[in-house]
Amino acid sequence: MSETNSQNIVNTAVTLIEKYAEGKRDFSRANLVDADLRGLDLKGSDFSYADLSEANLSGANLRGCDLSFANLSQANLQDADLRGTLLFSADLCQADLKGAKLEKADCDRTTHFPQDFNPVQVGLQIREK
């Protein structure tokens, strides 16, 4: 990893908010474990390979985000807007998806959902690799 990339890793909610306000949208590999991101507008951001485990994203606007390979285990996604997101190989085990808007979001067979969660029922599109 180059020195430039390692300096750009976002690891606090405050840094994320500042960078988003500056127009940055690439937060791939961000380390936001247990971050409080309630109600934030983060639409169109790249969170691929990010660690958002146990993060509070309730009511957040994540529309059109790339969450491929992201760790969202035990994340609070209640009432979050995830329409049009990419969820390929994302880990959503034990995530709280109550009221989350998931229409036209894309996932694949390697995306992990909470037990008893039906991706088709909420409008997710399962893509074959």
From TrEMBL:
Pfam families: Pentapeptide (PF00805). It comes from the Bacteria. InterPro entries: 5peptide_repeat, Pentapeptide-BTB/POZ_domain. SUPFAM superfamilies: Pentapeptide repeat-like. PANTHER family: BTB_POZ DOMAIN-CONTAINING PROTEIN KCTD9 (PTHR14136). This is Low-complexity protein. It comes from Nostoc minutum NIES-26.
